[in-house]
Automatic annotation (TrEMBL):
Protein name per the record: CoA-binding protein
Keywords on record: ATP-binding, Nucleotide-binding
Annotated ranges, domain N-acetyltransferase: 45-201
MF terms (GO), sorted A to Z: acyltransferase activity, transferring groups other than amino-acyl groups; ATP binding; metal ion binding
InterPro entries with a match to the protein in the record: Acyl_CoA_acyltransferase, ATP-grasp, ATP_grasp_subdomain_1, CoA-bd, GNAT_dom, NAD(P)-bd_dom_sf, Succ_CoA_lig_flav_dom, Succinyl-CoA_synth-like
Lineage: Bacteria, Bacillati, Actinomycetota, Actinomycetes, Mycobacteriales
Domain (ATP-grasp) ranges: 726-762
Region (Disordered): 1-28, 269-302
C-alpha cells in the first residue's frame, strides 16, 4: 500500500486518543483476531488488532525502522510519521480497514493492514501491506501477518487482496507467492501490482500446514536441543528440587555449559554484618577475597541476566510467587524455552489455575515456549546433546522411541519401566499441567526427527482435538504412534455424563484408529506394543506361525492370536526336550516360508541346559539369508518369560544398547500375540491407499457462512428452524423431503394438497422424534380427511400447536447422522440406525471431521447397518456421498455446533432426509480452523 505521509512533524509527538475521528469508530475489536503465533525460528509472537492507544507504540516502531525498510514500505524516505497519519493508522473500523500489530513483550515488531477498495469500484478487494522491524526480518512474520489479515478480510466479505510493491523489493512478492497464493503480477515502471484471491485452497492449506509444522518443530527443537542450560533455583541443599535437576543434568553428561542460578548465593552489598561464632560482632571482617558462590562445584549467578554467555533453555525450580521476576530476566537474557517444575498452579484449584493462565500468557508475551508448570522435565538421549533436565532418578539408554506424558509421578514410573525393558528412548517430555507445549507440538517435532522411529503418548486429554487428528494422521503414515488414554480424562464431564465412560472409551478408540494411532489400555500393553515396533519389522500379512516346545503355551498364544485378528497357519510343537539345533532349524524353516508373515516362538528351556545357546540359535535362525541383522518378518517370543529384550536376543549398537533386529520377549504368550496383532492392525492402516477429504462439487460455503452469522443472536447458540436448516443443507446438495409447517387443520389440508398425496403429519419435537412406537407421526395419508384427522389426533396427543406436513417418502431403512462439536474430540460425526433404541444401545459409529472417502466408507460398512443395507439393495456410494457432504459442511462452517439428520430413509430408489436439527454458535477457541496459531 502506498502512503504519502508528511515528514515535517516531530517524531516524539503523541496523538490525542480522544480525537473526533476516533470517537466515531468502534472501540471493541474482534477478540478472535488476537493470537499467539510462532515465527519460523520457533519463537512466540503475539498478534492483536491495533487500537488508538497504540499511537505512541506505533511511532516508536516506525522510528526504529532502518532507512531502507522505511523506503521499501512507504516508497520514500519517511523519517517520521505525522500525527494525522498515526491517527489514520491506529483508528480503524475492523471491517473496511483492519490493522494488526505483532508484539514481543511490550514492543511492536511488525505491523500489517488492509484497506477496502470499494471507492475504486472494487467492493470485494482490499489493498494489503505490512512491515517488519529490521531485527526481526527473516523470521517469517510477513506470511503470518498475511494469513491473519486474510482471515479477518474473509470474515468481512473480501475475496481478493491487492498490493503495490517496489520492483527492487522482490522479497515482498515472494512472501505472497510462497504463502501458497496464486498471484497475478503487472509491472508499471518502478512498481509491481500484485493481485490474488484469499479464499482457502488446497495448495494454500498445504503451505500453511507445512509452515506450522516447521515452526512448531523448531520451537520444540529449541527445547530439546539447547546449546546452554540455566537451572534457576539451583539450591545447595541436595534435597531441593533445583539441586536434583542440576545433578541429573551433570550426571547425564550434557554437552553444553550449565549455569546454576541461585540468588541466595550472593550477599547483597547493603546487608549489615552479622555476628560470627568465635569472633566479636564488633571485629571487622577479614579482607580476604571470597571465592565465587557455587552449586555442586559450578559457579552460580544471582540471576540469569548475570550469566555472561547465551542461554537457550532455563529450568525453573523457584516458588510460584517468584516466577514473574524470573520471566523478565529470561526475556532480557534472550532465553528461548522454559521448563517449569514448580508446583502451585492449576493442580491447586481455581486460584492456581488463574495463576497458570497468567503464567502461560506472560511466557508467550515474552516470546518463549513453556513446558509445565508442575512438569517432570525433558530428556534428549542423543549423544551430541545428552540432556536429562528432569527429576527422574533413572532414565533409559539411547534409542529410537519418543515418549510424551503429562503426569510427573507417572513419568518417573514410565522411565523406570522403559529402562527395565531395555527400550531405548530418543527423547522424553513430561508436560505437567501443559499450559503451553502440548502433545501436538511434540508430535510435530517427532515428525521431522530422524532419531525417532516410534512415538508413545500417555494422553490425559487431546488438547486441540482437530489439530491432533490432523497431525497424528500424517505422523502415523510414517511412524507408529501408540497411545494410552487415562480413563475418562480425555473427555469433558458433560460428555461423559451424556454418553457414559464405556461408550466414550469406544469413541476414543474409533477416533484414534481413524488417525492411525494404536490405542492400548495399560502401561504394560504400551510397552509390549512399543517393543515389537521398535525392534522388529511390520508384518505384511496376518498369517502367523507358532514354534515352541510347550503345547500348552503354544495353544494360549494361538487362541489370543486368532481372537486378535491374526491367522494361525502353522503350530510346530518341538517337545520339551528340544535341542538347540532343532529349535534353530524349525524357526529358520518358517522364516523362509513365503506362506507365513510373522512368527511367535514360545520357549521354556529344558532343565540343566545353557539357555544362552538356545538364544544364539534363535538369533541365527532369524537372520536374513541375504545378510543384515533385521529379520524380514517380525518375530516375538516368550523366551524364559523375560520381559523386554534378553541379553542373548539383543543386537547391540556401538553404545552396547539394543537396536533393530533385537527380539522382544514377553512374560506370557497372550501378551506376545497381542503385541504382534497390534503391529498387524497398524500395518493394515498404513498400507491403505492415501485418502483425502473429497472436493465436493456445487457447494456454497460463503452463502452458508453469511447466513449463519446473520441468524446468530449476539454470539449465543441458536437452534435453526426447520426451514432455515433445510436452506443450509440445500447449499451442500442435501435435499430435505418437501414439507410445510402448519398450525391449523385447514393449513394442514392445504399443505397436503400442495405437496401431493400421500403425505405424513408429524411432530418435530425431540420428545416424539425417534420413538420406537412411532406415535409422533401419522404415515401414508392419502386424502385431506385423513390429514385433518391425523392433525387433530397429534395436536391432542402431543399438546403442540405447530406440526409438520411432509411428502411421503419411499419406505426404506431408517438411518441417523449426527455431528456434535465435543471438547474431547472436536467435531465428531456419528452414524447408525435411526431410533432411540439404537441410540440407547450405543449402536453408533464415530469419526472425526473432516472425513476422507475411506472414513466415510468405514462408517457405512459397520456391521449393524451393512446387514440391513445389503438386504434392501441400497447403493452404499450414495451414503458415502451424503456423509462427505455433511463433513464438508461442518468443516467449512465451524459455527455449526450440532447437526442431526434423523430419520434418513435409504432404499434402492435413493436417500430421503426427513428431518434435521441444526444448532449454531460461536466457534470454539481450540478449533483447528483459519490462520495458524498456538493453542
Amino acid at each position: 500500500m502506498t502512503e504519502n505521509p508528511e515528514s515535517t512533524v516531530n517524531p516524539e509527538s503523541t496523538v490525542n486518543p480522544e480525537s473526533t475521528e476516533q470517537q466515531a469508530l468502534p472501540r471493541e475489536y474482534p477478540r478472535q483476531w488476537t493470537a499467539d503465533v510462532l515465527a519460523s525460528d520457533g519463537g512466540v509472537v503475539h498478534l492483536r488488532p491495533i487500537v488508538p492507544a497504540d499511537a505512541d507504540l506505533l511511532v516508536a516502531f516506525h522510528n526504529g525502522l532502518s532507512e531502507r525498510t522505511r523506503y521499501m514500505r512507504y516508497f520514500g524516505p519517511t523519517p517520521t510519521l505525522p500525527p494525522r497519519e498515526v491517527v489514520r493508522m491506529t483508528t480503524v473500523d475492523y471491517r473496511n480497514r483492519v490493522a494488526l500489530l505483532a508484539f514481543l513483550g511490550d514492543e511492536v515488531i511488525a505491523m500489517g493492514l488492509y484497506e477496502g477498495l470499494a471507492a475504486d469500484g472494487k467492493p470485494d478487494s482490499a489493498e494489503v501491506a505490512f512491515v517488519v522491524a529490521d531485527d526481526h526480518q527473516g523470521r517469517g512474520l510477513g506470511p503470518v501477518l498475511l494469513e491473519h489479515l486474510a482471515g479477518a478480510a474473509a470474515e468481512n466479505g473480501f475475496t481478493r487482496f491487492e498490493a503495490e510493491v517496489l520492483s527492487e523489493n522482490p522479497n515482498m512478492v515472494a512472501v505472497f507467492r510462497d504463502a501458497g497464493y496464486q498471484i497475478n503480477r503487472a509491472f508499471d515502471g518502478s512498481t509491481v501490482h500484485v493481485e490474488f484471491l484469499i479464499d482457502p485452497t488446497e495448495a494454500l492449506t498445504s503451505v500453511r500446514n507445512a509452515r506450522e509444522r516447521a515452526s512448531e518443530a523448531r520451537s520444540v527443537a529449541n527445547l530439546l536441543r539447547p546449546q546452554a542450560v540455566a537451572v534457576i533455583g539451583a539450591s545447595t541443599d541436595s534435597k531441593k528440587v533445583g539441586n536434583v535437576i542440576l545433578a541429573n543434568i551433570l550426571a547425564a553428561g550434557f554437552t553444553g555449559p550449565v549455569f546454576p542460578v541461585n540468588g541466595a548465593g550472593v550477599v547483597p552489598a547493603e546487608e549489615p554484618e552479622r555476628a560470627v561464632p568465635g569472633r566479636s560482632a564488633r571485629q571487622p571482617r577479614s579482607k580476604k577475597r571470597e571465592a565465587p558462590p557455587s552449586v555442586r562445584g559450578i559457579r552460580s549467578y544471582p540471576t540469569v541476566r548475570d550469566i555472561p554467555d547465551p542461554v537457550d533453555l532455563a529450568v525453573i525450580a523457584v516458588p510460584a510467587a517468584g516466577i514473574d521476576q524470573v520471566l523478565d530476566d529470561c526475556l532480557a537474557k534472550g532465553v528461548r524455552t522454559l521448563v517449569v517444575v514448580s508446583a502451585g498452579f492449576g493442580e491447586r484449584g481455581t486460584a492456581g489455575l488463574e495463576n497458570e493462565k497468567r503464567l502461560a500468557e506472560q511466557v508467550r508475551q515474552h516470546g518463549m515456549r513453556l513446558v509445565g508448570p508442575n512438569a517432570l522435565g525433558v530428556v534428549n538421549n542423543h549423544h551430541e546433546i545428552a540432556l536429562n533436565a528432569s527429576l527422574a532418578p533413572r532414565i533409559p539408554g539411547a534409542g529410537r522411541v519418543g515418549f510424551f506424558c503429562q503426569s510427573g509421578a507417572l513419568g518417573i514410573a514410565i522411565l523406570d519401566t522403559a529402562a527395565h525393558r531395555q527400550l531405548g528412548l530418543s527423547t522424553f517430555v513430561s508436560a505437567g499441567n501443559r499450559a503451553d507445549v502440548s502433545g501436538n507440538d511434540v508430535l510435530q517435532y517427532w515428525d521431522t526427527d530422524d532419531d525417532t522411529d516410534v512415538v508413545l503418548l500417555y494422553l490425559e486429554s487431546f488438547g486441540n482435538p482437530r489439530k491432533f487428528g490432523r497431525i497424528a494422521r500424517r505422523v502415523a503414515s510414517k511412524k507408529p504412534i501408540v497411545a494410552i488414554k487415562s480413563g475418562s480424562g480425555a473427555m469433558s464431564p458433560t460428555h461423559v455424563q451424556r454418553t457414559g465412560p464405556v461408550r466414550d472409551d469406544r469413541i476414543a478408540q474409533m477416533v484414534l484408529e481413524q488417525a492411525g494411532v494404536i490405542q492400548v489400555e495399560t502401561i504394560a500393553e504400551l510397552f509390549d506394543c512399543a517393543t515389537v515396533l521398535a525392534y522388529q519389522p511390520l508384518p505384511t500379512g496376518p498369517r502367523t506361525a507358532i514354534v515352541g516346545n510347550s503345547s500348552v503355551i503354544a495353544s494360549l498364544a494361538a487362541n489370543t492370536a486368532r481372537t486378535s485378528g491374526l491367522t494361525v497357519v502353522s503350530s510346530v510343537d518341538l517337545g520339551p526336550a528340544v535341542s538347540r539345533q532343532e529349535l534353530t532349524a524349525a524357526v529358520a524353516a518358517v522364516m523362509t516360508d513365503d506362506e507365513i508373515d510373522a512368527v511367535i516362538v514360545v520357549f521354556v528351556p529344558p532343565v540343566a541346559v545353557d539357555s544362552a545357546d538356545y538364544a544364539l540359535g534363535l538369533m541365527e535362525a532369524t537372520r536374513p539369508a541375504a545378510g543384515g541383522d533385521v529379520p524380514v518378518k517380525p518375530v516375538v517370543t516368550t523366551f524364559l518369560a523375560v520381559e523386554g529384550v534378553p541379553d542373548g536376543l539383543s543386537r547391540t549398537g556401538a553404545d552396547g544398547l539394543p537396536v533393530r533386529g533385537s527380539i522382544p520377549s514377553y512374560p506370557t504368550p497372550e501378551r506376545a500375540a497381542s503385541a504382534l496383532a497390534q503391529a498387524w492392525r497398524y500395518a493394515q492402516w498404513r498400507a491403505r491407499p492415501d485418502s483425502q477429504p473429497a472436493a465436493i462439487p456445487n457447494v456454497h460455503p460463503e452463502d452458508v457462512r453469511s447466513f449463519v452469522r446473520e441468524v446468530m443472536v449476539e454470539g449465543e447458540n441458536r437452534v435453526l428452524s426447520a426451514r432455515e436448516g433445510a436452506y443450509v443443507l440445500e447449499q451442500y446438495g442435501i435435499g430435505v423431503v418437501p414439507f410445510r409447517d402448519v398450525n391449523t387443520m385447514h393449513e394442514a389440508s392445504a399443505a397436503a394438497r400442495e405437496l401431493g398425496f400421500p403425505v405424513v403429519v408429524k411432530s418435530t419435537s425431540p420428545d416424539w422424534v425417534g420413538r420406537v412406537d412411532r406415535e409422533g407421526a401419522r404415515l401414508d395419508l392419502s386424502d385431506a380427511t385423513a390429514v385433518i384427522n391425523a392433525f387433530n389426533e397429534l395436536q391432542a396427543l402431543t399438546g403442540e400447536s405447530a406440526l409438520q406436513v411432509q411428502r411421503m417418502a419411499a419406505k426404506g431403512v431408517g438411518l441417523y447422522i449426527g455431528v456434535t462439536d465435543t471438547p474431547s474430540y472436536g467435531p465428531l460425526i456419528s452414524f447408525g440406525l435411526s431410533g432411540r433404541l439404537f441410540e440407547a444401545l450405543g449402536d453408533r459409529s464415530h469419526r472425526s471431521i473432516p472425513l476422507t472417502e475411506h472414513d466415510a466408507r468405514e462408517l457405512v460398512d459397520e456391521p449393524s447397518v451393512q446387514v440391513l443395507l445389503g438386504e434392501d439393495g441400497t447403493d452404499p456410494a450414495r451414503l458415502v456421498d451424503l456423509l462427505q457432504r455433511v463433513s464438508a459442511l461442518i468443516d467449512d462452517v465451524p459455527e455449526i455446533r450440532e447437526l442431526r439428520l434423523d430419520p434418513i430413509l435409504t432404499s434402492p430408489e435413493g436417500i430421503a432426509v426427513l428431518g434435521s436439527q441444526i444448532e449454531v454458535g460461536p466457534v470454539p477457541t481450540l478449533a483447528d480452523t483459519g490462520p495458524r496459531r498456538l493453542g
